[in-house]
Amino acid sequence: MIPMLCATLMMSIHTAGAGPETLLETSGVFSAGVLAGGAIEVEQAGEYQVWAWAEAGAEARVTVGDKELAGTAKAEEKNATHAWAALGAVSLKTGACTVSPGGGVSAVALSRSAGFDPARFAANTRANHKSPDAAADLRAERVRHTDTVFTMPRFDTREAWEETAARLRRRVLLSSGLVPMPKETPLNAKIFDRIEHGDYSVEKVHFEVRPGFLATGNLYRPKGEGPFPAVLNPHGHWKAGRLEDTDTCSVAARCITLARMGAVAFTYDMIGYVDSRQFSHNWGREREKLWGVHPFALQLHTSLRAVDFLCSLPGVDPERIGCTGASGGGTQTFALAAVDPRVKVAAPVNMISSTMQGGCLCENAPILRLENSNMEVGALMAPRPLLMVSASGDWTRETPRTEFPAIRDIYALYGAADSVENVPLDYGHNYNRDSREAVYRFFGKHLIGGRDWDGFTEPAYVKEPDESLRVFPGEGKLEGQKGQAEVIADFIAMNREKWATALPKDRNGLEAFRTAHGTVIGDVLGVSVPDSNALRRERLSMDRMEGYVVERWVFGRAVQGDAVPALLYRGANADANPQDAVVLVHGRGKAALADPETGGPGPLVRELVARGAAVLCMDAFLLGEHQPMDGHRERKAAGNFMDTFQPTDTGERVQDILTAMAFLRGRRDLTGAVSLAGLDEAGLWCLFAAAVDPQIGKVAADLNRFPLDDDNAWVDRQYIPCIRSVGDVRTALALAAPRPCLVMNGADSGGLGWLGAQLAAAVPEPAALADWLR
């Protein structure tokens, strides 16, 4: 970064392996939470004045090196709970120096500058400069996970539901790297070793989901020429997978009976079960999730190709495709039905629940439930016939009074309330005979036809021996087939290549790209542009300073309980005409935009105010005033799938920028024209915000030497699941174009230039950057 673009408030800890050193040049303010267990690095030796911010009226003690200093904190401002105490001077040498605040001390200031005033500095770095408390942002405390109890919203109109449904359907596909949908490749299906019975046959099957990645299973067919309906049968997390044949669940019984009823039945392995031996079942790291590659994704992709496989078979009626499975197979059923309209009838058994969303990695794709539960995903089947079989002894025990009525309300919006049914049974978790018979009757009525299926019962059956159903003999790795790492690499390459093809190649393609993919950044981040009327706002104070006015605000989305601390600067002599505005965001919080020498706003803020702009400096999620001065706040976490249910920290920070934009547009003393600048790590947040909010004007983004093609850097510094599978910064720039965009301090150009962006090797000096923004 060019020196003095913005003076920084040094708040990091100097400990081994803790990251950047904390440099004390001539002035610095340090929270007690940051000082705990660490040291500062003194760059300039000399005599330093020392202050402590402590409870008003209390004696404050601070030890600097081996010298203890003390003084009384005398409150001069009304209602201030804390005040600054001047403790005296200390001589410091260059190098590491320990600073240890005593009890009750929330912050320590040190300065060699004669005019430094810590109270003025606090007034220009904190919205709540009278208290050390963190902003009351509920997002840091709220947790959503697979065992959260969810309530499905009410939708009063079909249009309101379909707007939500479109977003949820996009997110299911985005979560699995299926936007845009990849080109189909040859199935190269092999059907062999047919076993004939009097009224059905069974065969072994494998086909290529993608080149080198196999789906494996068994095909059960009725006698005759057809055309027959067909039913997909994902099996779920039973110990024996598709070979399960117990009183609790028999996959073979289901498939044999469906074939006898006159439907082709195909049962196929979940990843890592039975003959799916290219993978283990539980795998997946953040790096793969960046690309939308994980067990849920591969299983959904397999199910989509399984529909292709059934539709390719002679004797199958492609207009009559059904799907049913229990437990994890139930999740596969409603996920497939949500995104593939070829599935005309579905029966997820013992799965759609308001209290448990699936306990396996293969059921918890990242971003899948950022605003919803499985109830809404299941309702995406509407108005096609849907049967929900529930059990009194598992997480579907409340289906008759909770989940079923909620989903039936969606069907009612289509005039199809009779097309969704619930059959509650008094068992534990199962897909037993009684559950199967409920499904047979439903499929008979809605898919197979030909007779009255009321009262139909499952006839006796004999399952083939396991070895007669296994596609591949033996155990372990399949010789001559790709292994897990190779298949994952192929899927990542597929997602990279198809998005590179989707990106516009010149300015002429921007509008078509925006029409097709304008929502992808907001969808994967889990963010949206809030209505200004939906915000809560609290102005904590306002001061008229020499040359400027500063307003101190906390605002946020009222329903979500956000709290974004911010300072709004206006010129002291600004006329009554509405002003344009600029939002400044720094990766280390708004305190980094202050000037520690003068205690006032930093040079970039001053330059913008001098040019007639109103300037908002804000703390994004978990930065600045989101942290208590006398401690450290971490985001509360629960469960194993946080990125399934909640936006990541990066997502929340982008949301805060969008919220700040809505806050400024709601002010009548501003024009509504707002530009945006992000410095340090905040540059990427601002690019993503501009991609989501078309009303943002100019955008200046410091990439902070971020290596755009380094997956590890994305995981460590800017984790956003699925972001690389949708083109990351390239897509953000395409969606921001043709608005003026200045991309600064990049590690490489990355082919970004034609996308309407000016490229700068470094961050310009404050005056030059202010000129560009204004």
Properties at a glance:
single chain; 774 residues; alpha/beta; 9-stranded mixed β-sheet; disordered N terminus
Strand content: 25-35%
Beta-strand segment tally: 27
Q: What are the segments in which pLDDT stays under 50 over at least 5 consecutive residues?
A: 1-21
- How would the global form be characterised? elongated
Evaluate the radius of gyration.
Answer: 31 Å
Structural class estimated from helices and strands? alpha/beta
Strands in their spatial order, largest beta sheet: 10-11-12-14-13-15-16-17-18
**Major β-sheet profile:** 9 strands, mixed
Range of helix content: 25-40%
- The N- and C-terminal alpha carbons lie at a distance of 21 Å
How large is the count of helical segments? Answer: 21
Mean pLDDT: 93
Give an overview in words.
- It is a single chain.
- The chain is α/β, with parallel strands linked by helices and 774 residues long.
- Strands 10-11-12-14-13-15-16-17-18 form a nine-stranded mixed beta sheet, sandwiched between helices. It has a nine-stranded mixed beta sheet with strand order 19-20-21-23-22-24-25-26-27, sandwiched between helices. A five-stranded mixed beta sheet has the order 1-3-8-5-6, with no helix packed on it.
- α9 (403-413) links the parallel β17 and β18.
- It is elongated, with a radius of gyration of 31 Å.
- Residues 1-21 have low confidence and may be disordered.
